[in-house]
Design brief:
- It contains 16 helices and 2 strands.
- The chain starts with a helix and ends with a helix.
- By secondary structure, the protein is mostly helical.
- Strands 1-2 form a two-stranded antiparallel ribbon.
Length: 316
């Protein structure tokens, strides 16, 4: 009776009284996450690094071995240069090849011609490529896109297809066997690539910099010279290196357009012959010496080259 009275007094019906002692719901434990296999990740990273180092070593051997073989051949005796089977290291080291190569008539003049031609060609390429690339990137017109595509197409034309017409044109203008004629011909090789490179570098420069310069009172040319050009100086160095190399290593146009006065060193190297055939020792010796200016130039401009490559890879 007391229990019934208490239930009645509290206002709890029989149904509620029966439901009161219900148990709390069971708690479902959370699913365990799979742990990260750190050892597997580290092993994968080590494998990737090892593969990259192997590929890098293979690339170094592929590109470096020919130059090393050329360098070793320049110290060989004439008998060792034509030995069968060939040897990598000389059996007897000698400097006779360097003395013969540098002592020949016309070698020093060919070096001067090569430097003169490469410098003029590089300057012409930059003077023409910088405004062309700037106009293409800042004034995005249909004609600009057609122009840059046409510049790319010219890179696909074999040099021999335009070498003979160029030689005929230079002869008709009285420029045959002159550094100017050869520089113009070399510019036709380096200019399309220079325009493409400079276009990528100008694309990476934010337009806000030029707009801020114009607000401060600069003209379009003033903003280009004072603001944009310092930013893309690394890209200009990269473009100059490629243009210089294109002229420095060119052989076909130099062979077609020069005779004696304006012969460059690659043509002189090809003419190293003896009564028994090619003078491989003198050829490799002069080629090794001819490589020194390019190597020094690349080392001197290394920082600017890296900065230019980074600028062209990341758009602002």
């Amino acid at each position: 009776m007391r229990v019934a009275e208490r239930i009645k007094h509290d206002g709890v019906g029989p149904a509620k009284a029966a439901a009161a002692p219900s148990e709390p719901p069971a708690v479902v434990p959370p699913r365990r996450r799979r742990g990260v296999n750190r050892e597997g990740l580290e092993a994968g990273r080590r494998s990737t690094r090892t593969l990259l180092w192997v590929l890098l070593a293979a690339a170094m051997v592929l590109y470096g071995f020919p130059f090393l073989y050329l360098l070793f051949t320049s110290f060989k005796t004439p008998i060792d240069t034509i030995a069968v089977p060939p040897t990598i290291l000389p059996r007897e080291w000698t400097l006779e090849n360097y003395a013969n190569a540098l002592g020949r008539n016309g070698v020093l003049a060919s070096f001067i011609n090569s430097i003169q031609t490469a410098v003029i060609s590089t300057l012409l390429s930059l003077v023409l490529a910088v405004p062309a690339a700037y106009g293409i990137t800042r004034y995005k017109t249909l004609s600009g896109r057609i122009f840059i595509m046409a510049a790319l197409v010219t890179r696909m034309v074999p040099p021999v297809a335009i070498g003979i017409p160029l030689a005929s044109m230079m002869a008709a203008m009285g420029l045959s066997d002159t550094p100017i004629a050869l520089s113009i011909a070399h510019t036709t090789i380096s200019l399309p690539l220079s325009i493409w490179l400079m276009s990528s570098f100008f694309e990476a420069v934010p337009k806000d910099l030029e707009e801020a310069a114009t607000v401060d009172g600069c003209s379009r040319l003033g903003a280009l010279w004072r603001v944009v050009m310092p930013v893309v100086s690394g890209g200009i160095a990269v473009t100059a290196i490629f243009a210089f190399l294109a002229s420095w290593n060119e052989f076909l146009f130099a062979l077609l357009m020069t005779a004696i006065r304006s012969q460059t060193t690659p043509v002189v190297i090809a003419n190293f012959q003896t009564q028994f055939g090619l003078d491989w020792g003198s050829m490799t010796a002069l080629a090794a010496v001819y490589s020194i200016p390019v190597i020094l130039l690349t080392l001197l401009l290394q920082r600017r080259i890296v900065a230019g490559m980074t600028l062209g890879a990341v758009k602002g």
